[in-house]
C-alpha cells in the first residue's frame, strides 16, 4: 500500500539573531524595508545577523506499510514523524528517495495519491472556522468531486457517526478542541479514502471519546472497511492496543520495527526498577552485579529519579537495593515494573521519548 524507499529530507531555514540597533550602526536605506547586507540585514531599524540552518529531518527511511494494517510511528519530538506524514500526503517533497502510495509516486503523480488518502493532523487548521461542520464537510466533499447530494449524504452520515448532530450547524470556532478534532476526522473521511494518516490527532479527546476513537479505528475503519491506517503518536497505550506493527523513529532514522509484542519481547524478562531519592545514586555502585542493564537518572525539584533495567526481577532488585542501602543512600520510593515500548526505545537510543531531539542540525 505504501512503499517508502530511501527517503531523506533536509529542511533549509534561516536563523536570525538580533545584533545591534541601527542607531549604533551607520547605514543608509529605508528602515522599514528588509534589505540584505551580506550576512546581516536590517528590518524596522534593527540589524539582524542571519545564518542558514540545515535540519536533516529524515535519513534514508525504508518502510513498507501493508494493505489493511494499522501501522504506528513512535518517536520523540523532532524525530521526523510529521515530515514523513507530510511527504506521504504530498504536502512536502522528499529530497531523495521515492514513496509509492498504491503504486503512484507521490512526487511525480500526486493527484491519485491525494484522492486515496485522508489526513488528520493534531492542529485544528484543517477546517474553516467561520463555517459550520456541515458546510465544511460538504465543501471538502465537493473538492473531492462528490456531487452536492453525495457530499451532503456523506457529511450527515459522518456527523451521525461522530455524534456531532447537535453541533452540525454551529460555527466551527465555537466548538471545543475535541469536537473540532472529530470534525477534522470527518473531513479526512468524507471522500471515503482507503488510507488514513493520523498525526497526533487523539490529543484533545476526553477519555470516553478516546476510547470510542480507538474502537472506531479498529472495529469500523480497519476491520469493517479494510482501511490502512498510519498512526503517529506519543501515546504508547494507543499504539500498543491498536497497531499491527510499529516503527520506532529517532533522529530521522528507523531504529526498530515489529509487532508491539515482538518489540517488547526484545526486553523479555526485563524489569525496570524505578527509584526516587534525595541523593544521587552513582552507577558504579552496581559494578560487578550481573543482570543489571542500562541505568538512567535525572534530577527534578531536588529529587533524583533513577531507572535501572534488570533481568530476573525481584531477586536482582533486592541485590540492587542492598547496595544502595550499604552506601547509606536513603530511597524515598521505589517500584518494579515490566518493560513498555518506552523502555524499548530507551534501550535502543539511550533517550526517553519525551527528550527533545538534538544533534540533527547540519
Ligand atoms: N518547515 C520546517 N523548516 C525547518 N525545519 C523543520 C520544518 N519542519 C520540521 N522541521 C525540523 O525537522 C525535524 C523533524 O520535525 P518533525 O515535525 O517531522 O518531527 P516530529 O517527529 O513530528 O515531532 P513532534 O513529535 O514534536 O511532532 C525537527 O528538527 C524540526 O525542527
Ligand atoms: Mg509531529
Characterization of the model:
The protein is α+β, with helices and mostly antiparallel strands and 362 residues long. It has three domains: 2-55, no CATH class; 62-263, P-loop containing nucleotide triphosphate hydrolases (Rossmann fold, 3-Layer(aba) Sandwich); 268-338, Alpha-Beta Plaits (2-Layer Sandwich). It is built from ten helices and 16 strands. The strands form three sheets. It has a six-stranded antiparallel sheet. The chain is globular. The protein binds adenosine-5'-triphosphate (ATP) and magnesium ion. Magnesium ion is lined by residues 81-82, 199-200.
> What bound compounds does this protein have?
adenosine-5'-triphosphate, magnesium ion
Question: CATH topology of the largest domain, anyone?
Answer: Rossmann fold
Counted beta strands? 16
Main structural class:
alpha+beta
Query: What is the name of the CATH architecture of the largest domain?
Result: 3-Layer(aba) Sandwich
Any idea what the radius of gyration is?
25 Å
Low-confidence stretches: 27-38, 357-362
Q: Calculate the mean pLDDT score and round it.
A: 85
Strand order, largest beta sheet: 2-3-4-1-6-7
Amino acid at each position: 500500500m505504501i512503499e517508502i524507499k530511501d527517503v531523506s529530507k533536509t529542511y533549509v531555514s534561516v536563523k536570525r539573531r538580533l545584533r545591534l540597533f541601527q542607531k549604533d550602526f551607520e547605514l543608509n536605506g529605508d528602515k522599514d524595508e528588509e534589505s540584505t547586507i551580506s550576512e546581516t540585514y536590517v528590518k524596522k531599524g534593527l540589524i539582524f545577523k542571519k545564518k542558514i540552518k540545515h535540519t536533516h529531518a529524515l535519513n534514508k527511511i525504508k518502510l513498507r506499510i501493508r494493505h489493511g494494517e494499522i501501522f504506528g510511528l513512535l518517536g520523540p519530538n523532532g524525530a521526523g514523524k510529521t515530515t514523513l506524514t507530510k511527504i506521504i500526503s504530498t504536502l512536502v517533497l522528499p529530497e531523495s528517495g521515492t514513496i509509492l502510495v498504491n503504486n503512484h509516486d507521490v512526487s511525480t503523480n500526486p493527484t491519485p495519491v491525494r484522492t486515496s488518502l485522508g489526513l488528520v493532523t493534531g492542529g485544528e487548521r484543517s477546517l474553516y472556522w467561520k463555517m459550520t461542520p456541515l458546510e465544511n464537510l460538504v465543501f471538502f466533499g465537493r473538492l473531492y468531486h462528490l456531487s452536492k447530494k453525495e457530499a451532503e449524504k456523506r457529511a450527515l452520515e459522518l456527523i451521525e457517526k461522530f455524534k456531532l448532530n447537535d453541533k452540525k450547524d454551529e460555527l466551527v470556532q465555537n466548538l471545543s478542541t475535541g469536537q473540532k478534532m472529530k470534525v477534522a476526522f470527518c473531513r479526512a473521511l468524507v471522500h471515503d479514502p482507503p488510507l488514513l494518516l493520523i498525526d497526533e490527532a487523539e490529543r484533545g479527546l476526553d477519555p470516553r471519546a478516546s476510547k470510542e476513537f480507538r474502537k472506531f479505528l479498529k472495529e469500523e475503519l480497519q476491520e469493517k472497511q479494510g482501511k490502512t491506517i498510519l498512526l503517529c503518536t506519543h501515546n504508547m497505550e494507543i499504539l500498543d492496543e491498536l497497531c499491527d506493527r510499529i516503527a520506532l523513529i529517532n533522529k530521522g532514522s528507523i531504529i526498530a520495527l515489529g509487532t508491539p509484542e515482538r518489540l517488547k519481547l526484545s526486553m523479555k524478562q526485563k524489569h525496570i526498577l524505578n527509584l526516587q531519592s534525595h541523593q544521587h545514586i552513582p552507577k558504579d555502585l552496581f559494578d560487578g552485579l550481573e543482570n543489571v542493564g542500562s541505568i538512567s537518572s535525572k534530577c527534578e525539584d531536588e529529587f533524583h529519579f533513577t531507572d535501572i533495567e534488570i533481568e530476573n526481577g525481584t531477586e536482582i532488585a533486592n541485590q540492587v537495593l542492598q547496595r544502595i542501602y550499604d552506601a547509606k543512600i536513603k530511597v524515598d520510593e521505589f517500584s518494579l515494573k515490566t518493560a513498555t515500548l518506552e523502555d524499548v526505545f530507551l534501550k535502543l537510543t539511550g533517550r526517553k521519548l519525551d527528550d527533545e531531539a538534538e544533534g540533527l542540525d547540519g
